[in-house]
Amino acid sequence: MPSFPTPTPFAAGLVLLLLALAPVRAEEPAFRLSPANVVLRGKADRQQLLLTGTVNGKELDRTRDARFQSETPTIVAVSADGVVTPVGTGTATIIATVENQQIRTIVKVIDGDRYAPVTFDKDIMPLLARAGCNSGPCHGKARGQNGFQLSLLGFDPDFDFAAITKEARGRRIFPAAPDHSLLLRKASGQMSHGGGKRLAPGEPGYEVLRRWIADGTPRTPSNTPALERISVLPTEQLLTNRAEQQLIVTAHFDDGTSQDVTHLTTFQSNESVIAAVNAGGRIKAGPLPGEAAIMARYMEKFAVCNVVIPLPGNVPADVYGKLPRNNFIDGHVWDKLQRLGITPSDSASDATFLRRAYLDVIGRLPTAEETRAFLDDKAADKRTRLVDRLLERPEYADYWANKWADLLRPNPYHVGMKATYNLDSWLRDAFRRNKPYDQFVHELLTAQGSTFRSGAVVLFRNRREPDEITTMVSQLFLGIRLDCARCHHHPFEVWSQDDFYSLAAYFARIGRKGTGISAPISGGEEIIFTATRGEVKHPLTGRVLPPRPLFGKAAAIEGERDPREVLADWIVSPDNPYFTRVIVNRVWADLMGRGLVEPVDDLRATNPPSNGPLLDALAVDFRKQGHDLKKLIRTIMTSHVYGLSSLPKDRNSADLRNYSRHYRQRLRGEVLLDAVSDITDVPETFTAMPPRARAMSLWTVRTQSVFLDSFGRPDPNQDPPCERSSDSTVVQVLHLMNSPNLHRKVTADGSRVATLAASGKSPREIVDELYALVYSRLPSDDERAACLKIFDEKGTTRRQATEDLLWALINTPEFVFKD
Amino acid sequence: MALPRNCAGMTRRDCLQLGLGTVFGGGLAHALRLRSVAASSDAKAPAAKSCILIWLDGGPTHYETFDPKPNAPAEFRGEFSAIPTRLTGVAFSEHMKRLAAIADKLAIVRSIRHDQGNHGAGNHYMMTGAPPRIPVGCGAFVSFHPSLGSVTAHERGAPAGLPAYFSIPEMSRSGGPNFLGAKFAPFVVSDNPNSPGFRVRDVALPAGLTGERFESRRDIRVQVDRLQRIADKAAGDPAAALDEHYQQGYELISSKQAQAAFDIHREPDRVRDGYGRTNFGQRALLARRLVEAGVPFITLYEGGWDHHKDIFKELNKRLPSFDATIAALIDDLAQRGMLDSTLVVVLGEFGRTPQVNKDAGRDHWSNAMSVLFAGGRTPGGQVVGATDVKGFSAVERVLSPENFASTIYRKLGIDPDKVLYTPQGRPSHLVSDPTPISELMG
């Protein structure tokens, strides 16, 4: 407990009042005005102030409870909402009064008695964006609206400047009488305007436009500082239900100056039910606990404020202090749970952990013997040793290659069977050797040679145009989705068409020799090599774009060097945080049931991770461990968090993204089919595969399997290729229940059932065996007794009883889900 | 064990034996008589008992279907000419021959428009009546709101044993139940009714297993199913979703109506030929059989309408049989006296760009689209709204996806202003603007 301040007489009364109301002792709130060191430049500048009160370590926005006052009204004025505007030039003090406390801040005004020249890029463009003029449904759409077209969301200032000042013979602008300009008359609804009234005379926005027109619509002077970034204050905020929080958005320029642009910013919440935001940047928390990301956009820059609304009620801090911390993962998860007021579930039982670990590392169930051995093991470190053992199993490679095949598997009708097989083999080999992930990606991206000899080159037979390779590579290896930027500036990201085609230019010199695509067989051989020439042009300007990475720096392409090598170096380099983040997020999602970022390959400021510090820590650790995927899996699986039960306790049932409990997952189609074959001891027969082949070893979707298709196997021959589905459906349930194939596996001669029934085992031993096989545990006494009754039923043979019990076990969620 | 009774007083076990163990000879009419006992009798009968929603995925062109622009310059008009219809002054594009001949039964809405120009978002808006809450990518499969079909299943239910919402042959991107839960997800029939051996997979017991044995297995399953479910709905326990699917699956295989409705082979060749011996034609026929069995919502999903390239070449191949099948469906429903109680709707996520592009295609265009309505007491022989002379934009009687969704709900006797609650307790209006398209309401 922090020391208790000596109360003043009035505050003592207040404190007594608080003590009477609050369950815990309250300390006197401490107040803070932000930002500090405000500097205003020019008469049109302004600054929103925030008054933050801190009670018991919790911060509250008290801006609207304060009375603002300018101590120096000849220099600055301040509105009731806390917006400071210049009146003269000099230094002034603002006083905010709240709960009988006075908090002061100093404001310096430079050139406060005259307007700084209005600039098109900095003042006018954001105004158009905020009024919605350049949005998709209005003038921003591809053909404009009513003959007036702006670039979508204002990403092309040159175009927009011309559209406003030069097109329509300049009749949109009338500098001699600015108020009569079409631009203002339409926007203010004084002339009929499809978009209605967007700006009113007297409003700051209207006045800025008016001054700009009166000044003769100058383009931005070349010495104007360029916008580097924007920041939002606060960036993280805990709110109670229905509480409010004002945001401040600050633009930072390359000359070191900054400016409050809150009033020129567009805001959007990704979960408006949890926390909504109004046009002025004031967040209002809803009635439910949860999290939301509030996106602020000013010009082409973004910033995000993450809002957390904790579960009401107090959890003593030492609850979190006492939680186990096996490695860094646990600390990050507990920190987040503490912020949300969520408490974690208990640890899962040994049997649950065993089944989970087998399924996660090698994609198969433990045998009955393996289950018994693990359950009988009394060693304290048996879970860790289990993970280590599993990582050395040969099935690891097939299982993880199978996952990667979902992402990389080519369309067999497009590239041909031999090439499909080669890429599949390359993947399996990479996981068998535990190839470091950076090397894996580098080899894929720079592959050269024959599709008949090298698997990695098949990627470039399947995807042929630089732009289609680019979208795939950036989404897969950077978690950056560039599809939008093919045709226009990405509307909720920073990527432009320039960025996209400059990146695509790295794939411009892929040479191909041999037999091209001749669907649907496409059996020919093709050689991929580095061509001496090849270029990518901007689709609108036709300009040839030299290769350039999305951000940061890449080496120059010298001499004969394949541009793809330079790109691959840049992608895997330590300076590229996306590369490791997206892969650790992918693996985390596989093991934990949900990505820190969802969808797992959509990393962007406007889609923040549920636990940013954890994602960063995992990425840093992964790089430190030499991009070793097995080590990453081991790190995650030996955390305490991984071993939690899926069953919630009283304070975490609604948690779906903070890992306070394990999230159940339906087993993948291949895993389920192999499990059914293992349990029944009746292998599946696949075309073009050796006897006893496992579903996990299939290398093409052309190997037919009704089972796999029912359970969501993706089909690379669809356009766009379907993603794997992890939902459960009636079709799947019916398949397990009634399909002739499952029936055969349960009842066939020579099956597990037949062998067990014919053996000398007692019914009790048979029941135990089936439980170990299907559920990876032994039955409780109660369960066992219920099952034994099946064997006692009149007219039921041992064989029938065993068949019926096995069928029943396979048809329950305990089998179909990883718990 | 006391089995619950359904199917007009028979036990489930009887049903199983009837439906699966014996040759079922009563035909669909017999099944329908049985069903009428179970069917709910609503005091205020809705206009339509069922809706067949034909979804043309990719965004069908309005120019080459129901909104030709013969007077626009060639780069907008395209290669097809306009043909007259039974309605004075109303023209369709040249391949819509059979629909033009029954235009007196159709209502074409030419003025629905919205602001979602990519497939993921456009699909969501039209399939649910709600725009996506956050920007979504083009290829996205997103769900922020329950789909028309899921809401109908939730509100209207189905005859015992039959799913209330079918999607054939696959689910549309945003055609899911969202917060309503797995019970209201579509039942997907991916098997092809145009193939000679068509049967809906796995809805009959495997050969060699008696109904009695199946029932006893089912009892055993109840005994061994001990995985603890998470009671709080907000936890979104997928095991609970599986339970709902299990229940539905069990009811389906116990249902004679379902078995009969799926048996398309009972249709005379004349009828099957009339719908066209194409995958789409036979799916439309299957949809009609499901409507007869009392299913309230069926989505027929037809992919491949994203004609960025070679639109005329592709549509020359595709439109004639498409036109024939939809006309056959409407005619057949009318002849059977079912058109008044069955709403048929044809649409995609948006229309296509006015100017033919350099690849002889048209791109995405949400400022105008054409939607066909027939049946469900929709006054036929009318065109609602209009686009401008070049087809750029809906200009007369501009309507929204909300109006579209509200129309369907109203027709099906569902109040579009109804508030449903999510498992978290958040209220959610079915449609934010519950105004139906008055011209279609009759």
Describe this structure in words.
The complex is a heterodimer of chains A (819) and B (442). Chain A is built from 31 helices and 27 strands. With 819 residues, chain A is of the alpha+beta class. In chain A, the strands form nine sheets. In chain A, strands 2-10-9-6 form a four-stranded mixed β-sheet, with no helix packed on it. By secondary structure, chain B is α/β, with parallel strands linked by helices. Chain B has a single domain, classed as Alkaline Phosphatase, subunit A, CATH 3.40.720. In chain B, the strands form six sheets. Chain B has an eight-stranded mixed β-sheet with strand order 8-7-9-3-10-13-6-14. In chain B, strand 4 and strand 5 form a beta hairpin. Chains A and B meet through strand 26, helix 24, helix 25, helix 26 and helix 29 of A and strand 8, helix 7 and helix 8 of B.
Structural class of chain A: alpha+beta
Oligomeric state, counting identical vs distinct chains: heterodimer
Our count of helices of chain B gives 13
**Broad shape of chain B:** globular
Q: Summarize the amount of helix of chain B as a percent range.
A: 25-40%
Q: What is the name of the CATH superfamily of chain B? A: Alkaline Phosphatase, subunit A
Which structural category do the helix and sheet elements of chain B fall into?
alpha/beta
Describe the main β-sheet of chain A briefly: 4 strands, mixed
Low confidence ranges of chain B? 1-43
Q: So, CATH architecture of chain B?
A: 3-Layer(aba) Sandwich
Tell me the strand percentage band of chain B. Answer: 5-15%
Strand content of chain A: 5-15%
Number of domains of chain B: 1
Largest interface: A-B, 63 and 60 residues
How many strand segments of chain A? 27
Give the CATH topology of chain B.
Answer: Alkaline Phosphatase, subunit A
Strand order of the largest sheet of chain B: 8-7-9-3-10-13-6-14
Query: Judging from the principal axes of the Cα atoms, what is the shape of chain A?
Result: globular
Taking the sheet with the most strands of chain B, its summary is: 8 strands, mixed
The count of DSSP E runs of length 2 or more, i.e. the number of strands of chain B, is 18
Strand arrangement in the largest pleated sheet of chain A: 2-10-9-6
